[in-house]
Design goal:
The structure holds 3 protein chains of 3 kinds. Chain B is an alpha/beta fold. Helix content of chain B is about 30%, strand content about 20%. By secondary structure, chain C is mostly helical. The chains are: A alpha+beta, B alpha/beta, C mainly alpha. Bound molecules: pyridoxal-5'-phosphate.
């Protein structure tokens, strides 16, 4: 079949035990019947495992860390675009999104499409802003407080009872059952992710998850609700099943309408014992399990690639309820010469322009 | 064929999490000039280390701030926060742009008067105003922001003595989620102290309440904090109007907007994390929209923005004095500027750019100052290409608080220059001499 | 084992990629670093290594010996040379 010859760059190849979404996004793109192009992997570290999955990502380039600033990222993307002209880039990590959002205009001038939330939308869903968002969208959100000073933790139980979650601005969450644990978690989170820290009520119940794509005009392109059926000791979903939950899908619709969200996102939801749905977190990108969406007939990464390149995605049908994902770990065999090229040149493959 | 240019030999071990050769140094061009003035020429003329201020950046930032707010609120005033940088030349630039002065001491008040600022263009903050100072300020017509009940009483006494009815404002402290509370300044809102102060001031009938002031803190990158602050001040103003019939002339939201610097505990660099002035303005105005007074009575909005205006305009040029290899394998570079002049190195990861072309592989490097103390570290571990003795580096975003909080310790404080249009440059402050330092000393007669 | 035997077993590539087969550690060396490694492997002394660097590169500093010693210190720290080794 003659598909779209698109070259799409994808970040987040850190397929570790706390995986980035890159490999899943790439697999979804590769399996889209409409896709007949080239995938370019973008990595931040020479040892990101996805780099060495050569059958999935023959071309890989290192990017400067987000902490190096926008200029460095722009220079690098220009270089990569010179080597392999890109049609679109799909960033998949929270910490890199502000830079990609800031570069949206520049990239578009270069002919590289993106389909990202605005900076306002990105900030709105920040953990610190969730209560305001919940109010606006008519969605329940657990009580939370923004904390910049460890002193504030000593009285926090008056507002948020233990056990509670101590969360970083971008990543990281720890359950604390006492002041001592909260203080310890605070320092750990600050050391890794900086200030501020968010303290959030724990809601008990069943963990649910939605991957969704907003059209940027208040509409929902598609959403797949999932229940995690198996969690690792770190609380990461290792298996899950696509479900039909009108309530969850309605929440995704309300979220899109309230924020006019543009691009992919993940809504982490808890259904409590009274069957109320609480929105715990909004991640402004695909989750690592997004391959399930493609497997269940709702290829959201492909729809994103089409929207990023100014194409209209075909209407996304109902997903196949009951489709499961079960994650497996397998060891890739890698050639030290590949590692050498990544370590010394910062790239792998990259030969020849697509014709 | 010509030979390649020599680079210092390096060997870098590959470690997980640190394996990325595309650091900032690769993307940045060297900083060889500032607004058309060559760094080499500046250093040749004024020495090293050297603070360089860009007039263009100062003016641009001031106008950007003013426009962001003026587009959304009919009357806006900037009161230049002297403590942030009170070099005469810098203050003059802000006054030329229409700014009032915001001072917190006798010394700053005199400084403002000396620069030709009329007393009624001076907002006077701070918890410590002597009776003499307060008398001068009230008699002169300065806009005094009262900080506590003792000061309120003192102001009333002085007004009585001078037979005046001076205009004053009250400093309010309030709590905003996510911002450490500066509750030691002003009258506390949530505990009811602020209302008591208003009632007390109105009942005293010696002072005219014309404004509310609140300074939340500093380097606040979350614009919502300002929305919350403005909302609380607006509600208080509504209440004062309803209860006491007082129509306020201004609401002063203080300073505290983040500059493009990067705090040590911040993950993303300031260039990405710091909101533009327009987003602060949106948040503030949204809060102020809770004011219920008729449109024509809407108070003036006063801004005391300090670091966000001046930080980006200042660059510290320093010279490499020595290179050394540290036992942990990192490279150490000894500079002629340390924390004595770059006080802000304690809390910022200042941006570092070489001032000349560099060659060679970037290595993890620590930048040390010239002091004999272990704390004298300007930047802890960043990737830098090899630097030769005599090379120069620029530390960016140094304009706020350094030339006021720097220390005279074991050496002289360096010169500060201003670069104007067309690359012209002149001193804002010359380098200190022995006489400057020992001048005030006296020898007890028995020595 | 001679002082520089371990160096001789290193896999050293054109790109400056260095693989230590004993420990599995890998490193990157720049061109001048590679030249010094190569000289050490061939048993050259300090002066001979310095001479090769002067011959191959422009703008070599007068105190080149310091750079060479600094590099040897790095090799010692990475256990590629014995702790008591000096040129
Ligand atoms: C009362 C007052 N206004 C304004 C400022 C200026 O603050 P910033 O430099 O953070 O804008 C300060 C700083 O401490 C202050 O205390």
């Amino acid at each position: 079949m003659d598909g779209e010859r698109l070259t799409i760059a994808v970040t987040g190849l850190n397929a570790t035990d706390n995986p980035g979404p890159g490999v899943a996004v790439i697999r979804a793109l590769r399996e889209a019947p409409g896709f007949a192009g080239r995938i370019v992997g973008l990595a931040y570290d020479t040892l990101e495992p996805g780099i060495y999955a050569r059958d999935l990502v023959p071309d890989v380039f290192l990017l400067p860390y987000p902490s190096q600033g926008i200029e460095a990222l722009e220079a690098r993307l220009r270089y990569i675009h010179g080597r392999i002209p890109l049609d679109a880039v799909i960033p998949t990590l929270d910490s890199e999104l502000p830079s990609f959002i800031a570069l949206e205009g520049t990239l578009s001038e270069l002919g590289i499409g993106t389909f990202l939330p605005t900076r306002e939308q990105f900030d709105l869903r920040a953990k610190a802003g969730l209560p305001a968002l919940g109010e606006r969208a008519g969605i329940l959100v657990p009580a939370s407080r923004v904390v910049t000073d460890v002193e504030a933790l000593y009285g926090i139980h008056r507002e948020i009872p233990y056990p509670l979650y101590v969360k970083g601005l971008f990543y990281g969450a720890a359950l604390a059952c006492s002041v001592d644990e909260a203080v310890q978690a605070f320092h750990r989170v600050v050391a890794q992710w900086g200030l501020p820290v968010i303290v959030q009520t724990r809601v008990d119940g069943e963990e649910l998850d939605v991957v969704a794509l907003g059209d940027g005009r208040g509409g929902l392109v598609g959403a797949l609700p999932m229940r995690k059926t198996w969690l690792t000791d770190k609380g990461k979903g290792w298996a899950g099943v696509a479900i039909r939950d009108p309530e969850l899908e309605a929440m995704a619709v309300r979220f899109m309408a309230a924020t006019r969200w543009r691009g992919p996102c993940e809504l982490e939801v808890m259904r409590d014992r009274q069957d109320r749905y609480h929105l715990l977190e909004v991640n402004p990108r695909f989750p690592a399990w997004v391959y399930l969406a493609a497997g269940a007939g709702l290829n959201l990464p492909w729809a994103t690639a089409l929207l990023a390149t100014g194409r209209e995605p075909p209407p996304l049908g109902p997903h196949r309820v009951g489709t499961m994902f079960v994650r497996i770990s397998l060891d890739q065999i890698a050639d030290i010469a590949d590692f050498e090229r990544m370590a010394t040149a910062g790239e792998l493959g990259g030969g020849g322009r697509t014709g | 064929m010509s030979k390649p240019r020599y680079e210092r030999p390096v060997l870098i071990r590959h470690e997980a999490g640190l394996m990325n050769k595309f650091g900032r140094v690769q993307a940045l061009r060297p900083l060889t000039e500032i607004d058309g003035a060559a760094v080499d020429e500046l250093v040749a003329a004024y020495g090293s280390p050297l603070f360089v201020f860009s007039e263009r950046t100062l003016v641009e930032r001031a106008r950007e701030l003013k426009e962001a707010f003026a587009r959304r609120w009919p009357r806006v005033r900037l009161a230049w926060s002297y403590k942030t940088n009170y070099l005469g030349g810098i203050c003059r630039i802000f006054h030329r742009e229409g700014a009032f002065a915001e001072v917190v001491s006798d010394f700053e008040y005199d400084k403002a008067l000396g620069l030709g600022v009329p007393p009624d263009h001076i907002h006077w903050n701070g918890p410590y105003k002597t009776d003499a100072a307060l008398t001068r300020a009230l008699a002169g017509g300065a806009i005094v922001h009262l900080d506590h009940f003792d000061e309120l009483a003192a102001a009333e006494r002085i007004a009585e003595r001078l037979d005046l009815r001076p205009s004053v404002a009250l400093r309010i402290s309030l709590s905003v989620e996510g911002v450490p509370e500066w509750s030691r300044f002003g009258f506390h809102l949530e505990s009811g102290q602020a209302r008591d102060a208003v009632a007390r001031l109105v009942a005293g009938n010696r002072l005219e309440l014309v404004g509310l002031h609140c300074h939340l803190g500093t380097f606040i990158a979350d614009v919502r904090a300002y929305g919350e602050q403005a909302r609380k001040l607006a509600r208080l103003a509504n209440e004062i109007r309803e209860r006491h019939g007082v129509r306020l002339g201004f609401i002063d939201i203080g300073g505290g907007f983040a500059s493009h610097n990067t705090l040590k505990e911040q993950y993303l660099p300031g260039t990405q994390a710091t909101p533009p002035f327009s987003r602060y303005a949106e948040a503030v105005i949204e809060g102020l929209c809770e004011l219920t007074c008729p449109a024509r009575e809407q108070p003036l909005l006063v801004l005391e923005t300090g670091r966000a205006l001046v930080d980006d305009a200042g660059t510290l040029i320093a010279t490499v004095h020595a290179n050394k290899r540290l036992p942990d394998g990192r490279r150490g570079v000894v500079l002629d500027a340390g924390v004595n002049v770059l006080f802000t190195a304690f809390w910022y990861r200042h941006d570092v750019v070489p001032c000349q072309e560099t060659h060679g592989t970037p290595e993890p490097t620590v930048l040390f100052g010239p002091l004999c103390m272990n704390i004298d570290v300007i930047r802890d571990s960043l990737l830098l290409p090899p630097l030769q003795v005599g090379d120069r580096i620029a530390l960016r975003n140094c304009g706020a608080y350094n030339v006021t909080q720097w220390m005279q310790f074991i050496t002289y404080r360096p010169a500060v220059v201003l670069v104007g249009d067309g690359g012209r440059h002149a001193l804002l402050r010359r380098c200190e001499t022995l006489d400057d330092v020992v001048g005030p000393e006296q020898t007890p007669p028995w020595l | 084992m001679g002082a520089t035997d371990k160096l001789k077993d290193l896999a050293l590539s054109e790109s400056g990629f260095v693989f230590d087969p004993y420990t599995g550690s890998t490193f990157s060396a720049n061109d001048t670093g590679r030249k010094i490694l190569d000289g050490l492997r061939r048993g050259l002394d300090r002066d001979a290594i310095a001479a090769e660097l002067r011959q191959g590169w422009d703008g070599v500093p007068d105190d080149l010996g310091r750079d060479i010693d600094d590099f040897v210190l790095l090799l010692r720290r990475q256990h590629l040379l014995p702790p008591d080794f000096s040129l």
